[in-house]
Amino acid sequence: MSQISNEQVVIEEIAGGEFERTPVPQSKWKGWKNFLGMYAGEHAAGTEFVIGPLFLTTGVSAFDLIIGLLLGNFLAVLSWRFLTAEIAVKYRLTLYYHLEKICGKKLVILYNLANGILFCFLAGSMITISATAVGIPFNMEMPKLTDTMPNGPTWVIIVLLIGIVISLIAAKGYETVSKAANWMSPIIVLAFLVSGIVALNQLEINSFSEFWAIWGEGSEPFPGQIKYTFWHVAIWSWFANAAMHIGMSDLSVFRFAKKPNVGWTTAAGMYVGHFMAWIAAALLYAVYLNSAEAQAMLANGEAPTVAPGPLAYNAIGFFGIIAVVLAGWTTANPTIYRAGLAFQAILPKTSTFWVTILAGSIATIAGLFPAFAMKLLDFVALYGFILAPVGAIIVFEYFFGAKWNHIPFYAEKKNLAVNTSVLAAWAISAIGCYLISVNFGIFLSFVTLPAWILCGLLFLWFSKFQQE
User: Fold this and answer.
1) Residue 28 and residue 147: Cα distance in Å, rounded?
2) Taking a C-beta distance cutoff of 8 angstroms, is the pair 376, 50 a contact?
3) Percent of the chain having pLDDT more than 70?
4) Are 170 and 360 in contact (CB under 8 A)?
5) What DSSP letter does each residue of 152-198 carry, written as one string?
6) Contact 228, 64 (CB under 8 A)
7) Residue 139: which residues within 8 A CB-CB, separation 6 or more?
8) Which has the closest alpha carbon to 109: 391, 417, 355, 407?
9) Signal sequence: where (predicted)?
10) CA-CA distance, 166 to 123, in Å (whole number)?
């Protein structure tokens, strides 16, 4: 056995058997049941209590919201099944080790750092959401849509305690994350369903036409929000998880799948979470908008507060508090796990446990700042836009590389620290499309797909000259 192979074995032993730098062996492959609960729990999450109401603040119409969500979520499921799961089962590598083979060790460090930090910020928003539920019995002041800083010592203590628990669960590895999601997801799904039904009763909705009339033909957006149309809803919901499907982050999850068909389990997350849960949460917010407090804020030109804990508590009492807390946990757990894998790729000789604890610590600090949750629509669009184009590098190499006479895993074969073709393609596509979005006022999610396609094409084109 070579020195490199010996070192690889030692790293695997230190890492606790999560196969960060080797393909997942057949003995560790898992069936669809392991993924169904995880995706249903991850996407019927605390963030849904924020996203649903935020759609109401954009003045979207009933048709644009409901049909737009049906289309956008379907496109997301197709992306997971035919791109992410297909490639994951073929190679069974983490995203980070797969990229290292293509990009080179030094370049992938930059990506892993960005990926890990952005995932930590996303997990932090989920900790924020859980804290709004835990704080109810303590009469804690809830964060407002415009808040950026912690609003008191009670808030800080609650966020820190939640962050510690979530980090420890995530640090136990994939098995623990999967089990936790399977245990909690039925409770969370039931809570969304029940809260939606209760909200319908509170709104005195007795027919489908009355339900449709909640959004009707749309309205003017709330102060500080932009107007959403059908395409805003469809494209945003498709790319709400862009980093995970077309960005290939879930290679790290689906490498454990027995077959690519396991990718269809993401539909549980999209249509239970990103459809039913968003609409149920929007109904809870519609109830709050009828209150004297919300009407007073609107009269003063302010957007009424979106605090998931009080919204759920108003509908189903303490069960709502429990549901919001669990929903935050089931989403933050796999998100912190992914972030830990990103840091693992930067520090391969550090155990999975400790890099995940590092990721959890960063997420907990981020959770102290409500802005990540209160501006969730914008943040989700931005983080998907930044990370998604790199996934095109993997997809275009896999599906089109042979037609271009492309040498796969070129950086590994040529021992390149930086693959300049990858760096140039990512920089040109991301920076160029972002500048177009800013200068011409184009909704950022609208340029995510063009940036993704451009990055893949530029990578193959630059590689053609590089490899010749």
Assistant:
1) 45
2) yes
3) 92
4) yes
5) -HHHHHHHHHHHHHHHHHHHT-HHHHHHHHHHHHHHHHHHHHHHHHH
6) yes
7) none
8) 417
9) none
10) 10
Helix (H) or strand (E) holding 112: helix 105-134
What are the distances in angstroms from CA 358 to CA 160, 192, 342, 351, 391? 14, 32, 11, 11, 25
Mean predicted confidence (pLDDT) in 39-43: 74
Residue 313 pairs in a beta bridge with none
* pLDDT attached to residue 181: 60
- In terms of Cα–Cα distance, which of 455, 458, 22, 38 is closest to 247? 455
Mind listing the domains of the chain with CATH numbers?
31-240+251-376 (1.10.4160.10)
Tell me the Ramachandran region of residue 216: left when phi exceeds 0, alpha when psi lies from -120 to 50, beta otherwise. Answer: left
Q: Measure the CA–CA gap between 5 and 307, rounded to whole angstroms.
A: 52
The three-point CA angle 291-225-428 to 5° equals: 150
The runs of H, that is alpha helices, within 208-272 are 208-212, 230-238, 251-254, 266-268
Strand partners, 257: 30
> Rounded to whole angstroms, what are the CA distances from 234 to 60, 71, 240, 374?
12, 6, 10, 21
The pair phi, psi for residue 278, each rounded to 5°, is -60, -45
Predicted local confidence at residue 178, as pLDDT: 59
Can you tell me the distance from the alpha carbon of 124 to that of 360, in angstroms, rounded to the nearest whole number?
A: 9
Identify whether the C-beta of residue 109 lies closer than 8 Å to the C-beta of residue 272: no
Taking Cα atoms as reference points, which of 311, 284, 444, 324 lies closest to residue 380? 444
Q: Write out the two tokens for 255.
A: 């490498």
Cα 6 to chain center, whole Å?
36
Crossing angle of helices 153-171 and 105-134, rounded to 10°: 130
Task: Write phi, then psi, for 206 (nearest 5 degrees).
Answer: -120, 0
Which 8-state DSSP code applies to residue 369? Answer: S
**For the segment 66-98, what is each residue's pLDDT rounded down to a tens digit?**
999 999 999 999 999 999 999 999 999 988 889
**Among 110-124, 159-173, 384-398, 402-416, whose mean pLDDT is lowest?**
159-173
pLDDT greater than 60 at residue 8: no
Q: What is the mean pLDDT of the chain?
A: 84
Do the beta carbons of residue 156 and residue 138 sit within 8 Å?
no
Its pTM surpasses 0.70: yes
372 has pLDDT over 70: yes
Task: Please answer whether residues 59 and 219 qualify as being in contact, where contact means their C-beta atoms are separated by less than 8 angstroms.
Answer: yes
Compute φ and ψ for 244, nearest 5 degrees: -85, -35
